[in-house]
Amino acid sequence: MSNISLRQQQVIDLISEQEYCSIDALAEHFAVTTQTIRRDINKLCHLRLAQRHHGGVSLPTTLVNRSFLARSTTNQDEKRAIAAEVVKHIPDGSTLFLGIGTTIALIAEQLVNHHSLRVVTNNFQAAYILSQHDHIEIWMAGGKLRTSDGDITGDSVGKFFDKFSADIGIIGCAAIREITPLKDPHTLCVSSHDEAEFDEYAMEHELSEAEVSQGILIGSKQKWLVANSSKWHRKANAKVANLTQFDRVFGGKNT
């Protein structure tokens, strides 16, 4: 792009790879002052090429998720570390529900040494990975294949998960969002002394995705969420569940 500098293009490249970068980390990376980086960010935000956050910058907010291939190239080391930690806590002989997302697919990659697993999923990539291993039983939901997302959606998917009961249900999400709860549903307002209170929710871009994830959680004895640090800097609009509903959350703001 001729209207941005080489460093500003490199900033875009970095946030495309990592989804979120702090101002301090960018200043250190380019060996410039934080004020210089802030000027770069201001220009990129003005051009709608980036979105400012407190202390950092991310990709612009979008109402739709990026493709599976694009997402699989971002935060790879962090996602693999999260997947490795998840797999350590999965006992042999478990029945697993696996939801959608790139971190879930990485979990599938690392399940190869487990025995007597039954995996129920609508994650096409995860099912394909596991299909190379005869000792893992796979049940795949039927419905519309979203080729760019590598998963299957539709009303039949929720009904499919209803046919099973899982020891552990593992889902990802598009974002973690802080939402201020309504204390009085009749007045539709929050009292002044509660203004600082909020709940953190796992969110998805589409209602159909959120509903499938909710079905996974309902049918699971243990409810696990995987979320790399970039999820706290993104936005999505469809509620999945309050973070307090999960037995384990792998990953976090500062992972």
TrEMBL record:
SMART domains: DeoRC, HTH_DEOR. This is Putative DeoR family transcriptional regulator. The keyword DNA-binding applies. Residues 4-59 form the HTH deoR-type domain. SUPFAM superfamilies: NagB/RpiA/CoA transferase-like (SSF100950), Winged helix' DNA-binding domain (SSF46785). One of its GO terms (molecular function) is DNA binding. It comes from Vibrio ezurae NBRC 102218. It comes from the Bacteria. Gene3D superfamilies: 4-hydroxybutyrate coenzyme like domains, Winged helix-like DNA-binding domain superfamily/Winged helix DNA-binding domain. The keyword Iron does not apply.
